[in-house]
Amino acid sequence: MTSDDGVGASAPTNAVTRSETETATPEPLLTGARTLYAVLAVTALALLVRVVGLGARIMHWDEGRVGYWALRYHENGEFFYRPIIHGPFLPVVNDWVFTLIGISDFSARLVVAVVGGLFPLAAWLFREHLDDTEVVGLALVLAANPLLVYYSRFMRNDALVAAFAVFALGFVVRAVDTGRLRYLYLAGASMGLAFTTKENALLYVVCYLGAATLVFDHRLVDIAARGDSVAGYLRSRPAWAKRRLTSRWNTVEYGAGVLAVNLLGAFAVFLAVVAFFYAPRPELWQALGNPAALLDVLDEATIGAAESFYDSWADGGHQDHPYLPFFYGLSETLVYGAGVALVFAVVGLAVDGYGSHGARTGDSGDGGRRGRRWLVAFGFYWGVASLIGYPIATDIEAPWAAVHVVVPLAFPASVGIAYLYRETRASVATRDTVSIGLAAIVVVAALSGVVGANAAYMDSTSQEDKEVLQWAQPENDLKTTMQKVERIAEANDGVDVLFYGSYHPTTDEELLYVEDESSLDRMPPGGPSWHSRLPLPWYLERAGANVTSTEPSEERTELQNPPPVVIAYEWEAEEVRSQLPEYTEHRHLFRLWSDEIVVYIDESAIPEE
Predict the structure, then answer these.
(1) How much is the pTM?
(2) In a domain, 96, yes or no
(3) Residue 248, in any domain of the structure
(4) How far, in Å, CA of 500 to CA of 512, rounded?
(5) Which of 64, 117, 172, 337 has the fewest Cβ atoms nearer than 10 Å?
């Protein structure tokens, strides 16, 4: 039973209702400079999470491949674009890193970790279109999502292309918001860097254009729903755009003509960044002293690189796979590694579409406008397009593709996080313990995801984490064994390591054997069987090991004067063991849930420390 004023008659006299506390709701915690400080604090924590223990995990197969050729470039100064290892950013930048701080698993991953750690700063660029709490919410997703954390601690380009592409978008938004043309140049440089990391930077541009088209279409639908003329609206757009741009840039004494010149300048910056990274080495350095050769180098760095990528994409059979298994795998990874972000994204989309939005600096959301904001819808459309498109675009079923779905969904998720924050504060004020408990569960789930991702980073053999781990990850104990091998290589004279060539028992594929080891000095490698050694060549190359191999044979291969280290697949273990009775045997999972590698070591060859 209720009283006439709507308050329950049986409520205790000391009960606190929401209506009674609305006027006493605390002022927003995040306003103005405090929001920037909060984003900076989140970024600092993101950097810390990514850098601590960065070198603890053994290199993944893919890390070992890119790392090996980065080492070769560091040693011989020769590099050219090969689409199979993606863009030249990591080899080029890691050459400088190796020079400054040395060669290690830590230094090889450091650039990715730093860029991934700085990624939350991008949230600040969208502050005119999100309120303060939402800006911090966006930074939190970019800092703490388990998939983004894991693959920011992985020497691969996915976190890099995502960060650079979102920064480019943010700089364009700031240029429009402020009328400051310098942001266009920063956007050109950022998108140029995105294109130097991985070819799917092109998909980011396509998704941006597609999402913008859908947002514009929604605008037309809204106009039609109000009974206004869509045709009249479209006819008025050119004149409106001219007035808007002119007035916007006139605030900084720029006109439309100067804007066009600066757009071309930003595009020139984009091309300069792309050309610098894609230019073959040492031809680039030689051309700087011979301007006549510079045009050929620039042609190879731009048109030549584009042709190489197209040929690889068109002829490589990258899309020759069934769609549904790839879609299912990507969806499973998202549920496992980004489930909290997905829930927040759905909540945020609903809240933004049917709730109200306060001013940028307001946290309460009271009294604001209604209707979905373009940035929230833009992120959602971009995310859905990525979810549908990446199973087609990727050539292997790999969890890192989920990074490109999580990042766009972070925008609507930021609205969901802000909504939880506001509702939790209101619940605290009204002593609503049920709502507070639910909010605590969500926060614990998000934090446990980050902890779980880092636990998987350190303990890569757990099948419980296979939705995040890609199958070509060796178990971490192999790292300790390779440290012994490196110590032997540093002290031993002659051949240090012998790979025992073999045929795969089911596919009959030739493994481990390379006829001419000197062919591995320059790209491409001398035979496909070299890839079956990865990631071990990274460790052997940085130790300067002298490596050879035996040719696979149906007949028993005799080991004459074996070196101190022999490496074989587990199906050859019995045969090798019979010939190396004095060697210590170290077995390790080489491809999780698949192959096993056996390393035989003459312990007497390990130098004393």
Answers:
(1) 0.87
(2) yes
(3) yes
(4) 7
(5) 172
